Amino acid sequence: EPEVTQTPSHQVTQMGQEVILRCVPISNHLYFYWYRQILGQKVEFLVSFYNNEISEKSEIFDDQFSVERPDGSNFTLKIRSTKLEDSAMYFCASSVRGSNQPQHFGDGTRLSIL
Amino acid sequence: GESVGLHLPTLSVQEGDNSIINCAYSNSASDYFIWYKQESGKGPQFIIDIRSNMDKRQGQRVTVLLNKTVKHLSLQIAATQPGDSAVYFCAEKLGGYQKVTFGTGTKLQVIP
To answer: What pLDDT, on the 0 to 100 scale, is given for residue A2?
Structure first.
């Protein structure tokens, strides 16, 4: 069964450094997403991406965050200047369409900011 | 590792029994609902979904019930197995939006 893959599984970064999290969505999916889950808390929506542009974003997704689809298979989340509170699990997801279709998630990247 | 933040409600069931996990969703305008299963160290795994024009949907060993009057969702798992042990999240979505809003989760423990 096709799946969303994320790399790395664990990223440790010094506060203030830039970090790029990578995802390969399911190949025939058109909508891509990033979510995060702070330890012991709910999964929270960050951003959705369709047709090479952001289609929706949350208040968490401020100017420190950006997303990109650099080629036909990868989807990335960049955090420009990391803060301690950015430590979380970051999940990438994809769906065939944007509405009334399940979003399928990868296993996440654990981001630890020191 | 130790969890901080939300304390998850826990449901303990005997292997072979049926499980019912309940969820109160937040927005009466939500029109699409999903149940996800999350095992330790993994991402949310899609189980079953239901649209707001339905009140029941069945899958393999799972049934989702939707009561829009009281904004309530339930997930029924038949003949619960040890592999069903996980945290289960209900999630909702507003029509016309892509954002999925997750609930707090319920931890299901299956006793062999």
So the answer is: 77
Identify how many contiguous H helices and E strands chain A contains and give both numbers: 0, 11
8 Å CB contact between A67 and A78: yes
Q: Where are the beta strands (DSSP E) in chain B?
A: 10-14, 19-24, 30-38, 45-51, 56-58, 62-67, 72-77, 86-94, 100-102, 106-111
A97, pLDDT greater than 90: no
What pLDDT is recorded for position B96? 86
Locate the chain B residue with the closest alpha carbon to A57.
B99
State whether B46 and A55 contact (CB < 8 Å): no
Radius of gyration of chain A from its Cα atoms, rounded to whole angstroms = 13
Q: At A86, give phi and psi (nearest 5°).
A: -80, -10
